[in-house]
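Practice problem 4.
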């Protein structure tokens, strides 16, 4: 017998697949009775947060009886100054995941046949959130694991309301160039929203990578999302933002819950933006770790997808889920890519030197 109220639920929630997050360290310790577990599964900053961000959050704790500033004056001004834009372009999110959700809630639900275009192998939340709101994700075949922007433009129908692009993309690490993006944007009708998710923006070291803040001035239908979860090491605090035309920001503001960004997160974000030293150190750790992992994997005869982010996606030439499980037993958490139908792949976050070595040692052991 099913509970009668189940029929009340939005029908599109019934078969919704859930986002599968990286396994937490404590869970693996508990389940496998291990003590020394490392997590290279969620593209977190292995150095941790900036000590200045920690101090700022700690200071903000004593005011936790107060509601946060709903207008987020300080952080918005800080970001506006940082990017040389006016604060009315900025919308804060409880993580940039929430910014993506706000866009869908604002621009995608009006029409029952609403379609949202995403790429094959693109960040799973695009399609999941689209389905949560009863719209239809239209998945366009990838080109060399990345977004085929020409094919995505061709997929537009009269029902298309938004297009989501992750640049660089997670889980593949692939990226699109400024030229590709401009060619694409020129083809997109102005009544369709284009979202560029730049969660890994700070890691990108590619000359042809687009300057989307400049492009946003020309293409008013463009929304950029960024986050403090990756390079800035604040994933647990949940703070991200979007940059858009003020008219779009105004609409997003209507679906945004008044206190979606908390005081500790906003204080930490301001301090993290200022801590250039920690940012540079984090980039350095990532760069060296990537060189090490790429060399070690190449020596072992493995192919990986060239990545502009802080992670590598590796072809393990056998069931990636099995490799993931075997690595867990060695106390190394990576990400299996079965939900993306990349059966023979695993994704590993670039960690600290000893973590990267431990991953390679464990991989060698289980493949022996
Ligand atoms: C990690 C990630 C995000 C979201 O991060 P938040 O913690 O919600 O800011 C968004 N998009 C991509 C592609 C990501 O990998």
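Answer key:
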């Amino acid at each position: 017998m099913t509970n009668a109220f189940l029929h009340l639920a939005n029908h599109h929630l019934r078969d919704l697949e859930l986002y599968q997050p990286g396994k937490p360290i404590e869970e693996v310790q508990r389940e496998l009775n291990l003590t020394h577990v490392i997590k290279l599964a969620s593209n977190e900053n292995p150095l941790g947060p900036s000590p200045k961000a920690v101090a700022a959050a700690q200071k903000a704790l004593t005011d936790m009886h107060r509601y946060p500033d709903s207008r987020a004056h300080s952080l918005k001004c800080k970001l506006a100054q940082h990017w040389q834009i006016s604060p009315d372009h900025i919308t804060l999110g409880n993580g940039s995941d929430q910014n993506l959700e706000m866009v869908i809630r604002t621009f995608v639900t009006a029409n029952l046949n609403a379609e949202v275009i995403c790429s094959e192998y693109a960040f799973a939340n695009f399609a999941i959130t689209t389905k949560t709101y009863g719209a239809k994700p239209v998945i366009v075949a990838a080109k060399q694991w990345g977004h085929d922007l020409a094919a995505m433009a061709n997929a537009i129908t009269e029902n298309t309301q938004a297009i989501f692009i992750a640049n660089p993309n997670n889980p593949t690490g692939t990226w699109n160039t400024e030229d590709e993006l401009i060619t694409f944007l020129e083809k997109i009708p102005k009544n369709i929203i284009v979202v560029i998710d730049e969660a890994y923006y700070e890691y990108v070291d590619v000359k042809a990578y687009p300057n989307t803040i400049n492009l946003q001035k020309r293409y008013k239908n463009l929304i950029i999302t960024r986050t403090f979860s990756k390079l800035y090491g604040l994933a647990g605090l949940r703070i991200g933002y979007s940059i858009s035309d003020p008219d779009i920001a105004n609409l997003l503001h209507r679906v945004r819950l008044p206190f979606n960004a908390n005081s500790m997160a906003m204080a930490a974000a301001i301090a993290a933006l200022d801590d250039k030293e920690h940012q540079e150190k984090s980039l350095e750790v990532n760069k060296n770790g990537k060189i090490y992992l790429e060399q070690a994997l190449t020596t072992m005869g493995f192919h990986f997808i060239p990545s502009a982010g802080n992670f590598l996606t590796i072809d393990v030439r056998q069931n990636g889920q099995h490799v993931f499980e075997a690595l867990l037993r060695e106390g190394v958490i990576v990400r299996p890519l079965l939900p993306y139908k990349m059966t023979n792949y695993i994704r590993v976050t670039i960690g600290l030197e000893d973590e990267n070595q431990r991953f390679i040692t464990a991989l060698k052991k289980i493949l022996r």
